[in-house]
Amino acid sequence: MTGRPDSHVPARVLQRMTGLPEDPGTQPLPVNWAMHYGQAALLGVLRSITAQSGLREPVASAKFTVVRLTNDQILENATGVGAPPTTWPRAELLHKAVYGFVTGAVADALAARNGPGPGDATPPAARAAMPAQGRFPARTVTAADPEPQRMRTPATAPTPAAQARTAQAPAA
Q: Which of 63, 81, 126, 133 is deepest in the core (most CB within 10 A)?
């Protein structure tokens, strides 16, 4: 699609990681696709988790792109196949960035269907105006809360007895 030549690197990495035989003169397309799409799917799950946690928008996608490049570097250099990104053609870096931002846009759109996640930086007043949907309830923070950053869910919300003990505790 971008016109860049096919890379043999994903296949070589998978061959070395699994002990499959290598033939440097050929392009093992099924092995290449298995590694290419396998990595994309596994890392896509990571981006989905960040989006579900409320870490969304282009900044999160930029950070994810760095994770994608780091993953490539770890696997490629550990197997002796890769080269540093500074030696890569710019089209390859652009390809990785497009993957990172498209994956981020899809993950963000899917996560948005569940409402803001617990890591969403939306101000409390704006969050209160949003519909209460999705699995992640909005955080409840009070002045008496000893752990104001802790997310309160029905399972971890303090019991009435615990609330009474907190209210009666002497100020330090």
A: 81
Amino acid identity, position 25: G
Q: Which of 12, 17, 7 is nearest to 31 (CA)?
A: 12
**CA 37, 100, 68: angle at the middle one, nearest 5?**
70
Closest CA to 114 of 42, 57, 50, 54: 54
Residue 36, phi then psi, degrees to nearest 5: -60, -55
pTM of the complete model beyond 0.70: no
pLDDT (tens digit per residue) in 60-106: 999 999 999 999 889 998 999 888 878 888 888 888 899 999 999 99
Mean of pLDDT values over 101-115:
91
CA 6 – CA 67 distance, rounded (Å): 22
CA distance 48 to 28: 30
